[in-house]
Inverse folding.
């Protein structure tokens, strides 16, 4: 697929990646390699209530662990970050170990900022505001989807103002990501499927982004191959450590791809139904992806032919302008086999609410990277209606 003659880009992923079954239990080595001695574990309430994962990490850290902060909720907010940073400072923590899904990891990024910079978290919202490295941060994902362990973005809710704050800064990229398939084996099939489709959307959106670039493209295309092969296996048998491991790698590659290339219309629309109707992020992406592919089809033919190849399809004879439709059909076939819902109406979205979501989506930051310029909320409404 062709690149502009004026191609220029920055690719940034300094995070050390450690992969392998039970590697999370070697966490002490990573803490010591960062020259730290007092680690604070950041995790969510569900994980501490329903699994022994945080306790295992605590045990593996031994005397290097000064405490566990386990108050993270889904869509974590500023007040949680404030509590975590206060707790960390009281304990004299010199590094953070985030254990969980996107919310725990983003909370860890917020705590890392406050423990180093002090003040109000709100004041650091925006892009490239931080002036130097933050509190050392090791991340152990327990889902395979967000890729947050290698993204320079954190999303933290401001419950007081009723909005989500975006923190985009190279200084909040975690120092180490430990991808241990054992950490995801307890994830139920539906969540495995939905989070896996989030990773699929990251990969496809990095490829069709206006800011796409060759380094990210390579990661994204391989992520698609892995998701196509291993997501069904991980959904079918959560104990399949090969499938779990390959999905962690795929989510990580897709995360690194979109952290550099950005995402587009699929995420803009998913963020809005997520905010308005609390639809799970991965599920919203999965449902919206086919309609968005059809929308972009006339400007992304070559890219979508590459996506088709990565999905294992024979592309011979497919005209580029038809590739979007063919990919959309393939995605529907794939998500149906995963047992995921297909329509927005199936996940609690009302038809009357679509207009409001369209207006919200038009001002979402991701929309500017979509390859097809969208200037009217009515265009978005048509995509929503197709997916409804
Ligand atoms: Fe996402």
């Amino acid at each position: 697929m062709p690149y502009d003659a004026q191609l220029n880009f920055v690719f940034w992923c300094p995070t050390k990646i450690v992969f392998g079954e039970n590697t999370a239990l070697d966490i002490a080595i990573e803490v010591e390699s960062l020259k730290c001695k007092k680690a604070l574990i950041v995790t969510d309430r569900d994980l501490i209530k329903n699994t022994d994962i945080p306790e295992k990490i605590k045990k593996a850290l031994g005397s290097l662990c000064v405490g566990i902060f386990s108050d993270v909720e889904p869509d974590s907010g500023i007040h949680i970050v404030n509590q975590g940073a206060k707790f960390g400072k009281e304990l004299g923590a010199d590094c953070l170990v985030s254990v969980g899904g996107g919310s725990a990891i983003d909370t860890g990024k917020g705590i890392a900022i406050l423990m180093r910079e002090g003040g109000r978290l709100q004041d650091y919202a925006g892009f490239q505001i931080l002036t130097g490295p933050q509190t050392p941060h090791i991340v152990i994902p327990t889902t395979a989807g967000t890729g947050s362990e290698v993204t320079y973005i954190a999303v933290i809710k401001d419950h007081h103002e009723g909005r989500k704050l975006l923190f985009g800064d190279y200084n909040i990229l975690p120092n180490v990501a430990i991808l241990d398939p054992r950490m995801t084996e307890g994830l139920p099939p539906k969540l495995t499927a939905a989070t896996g489709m989030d990773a699929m959307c990251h990969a496809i959106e990095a490829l069709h982004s206006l800011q796409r670039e060759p380094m990210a493209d390579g990661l994204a295309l391989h992520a698609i191959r892995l998701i196509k092969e291993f997501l069904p296996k991980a959904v079918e048998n959560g104990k399949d450590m090969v499938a779990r491991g390959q999905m962690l790698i795929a989510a990580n590659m897709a995360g690194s791809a979109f952290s550099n290339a950005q995402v587009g219309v699929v995420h803009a629309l998913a963020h809005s139904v997520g905010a308005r109707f609390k639809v799970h992020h991965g599920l919203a992406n999965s449902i919206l992806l086919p309609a968005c592919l059809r929308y972009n089809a006339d400007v992304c033919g070559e890219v979508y032919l590459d996506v088709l190849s990565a999905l294992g399809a024979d592309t011979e004879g497919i005209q580029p302008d038809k590739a979007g439709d063919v990919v959309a059909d393939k995605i529907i076939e794939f998500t149906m086999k995963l047992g995921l819902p297909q329509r927005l109406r199936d996940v609690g979205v009302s038809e009357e609410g679509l207009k409001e979501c369209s207006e919200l989506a038009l001002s979402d930051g991701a929309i500017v990277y979509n390859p097809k310029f969208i200037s009217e909320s009515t265009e978005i409404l048509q995509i929503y209606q197709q997916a409804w």
About this structure: The mean pLDDT is 95. The first helix runs from residue 27 to 33. The pocket of fe (ii) ion is lined by residues 198, 201-202, 267, 281, 285 (CB under 6 Å). The beta strands are 16-19, 39-44, 65-72, 95-100, 126-127, 137-141, 153-158, 163-168, 176-179.
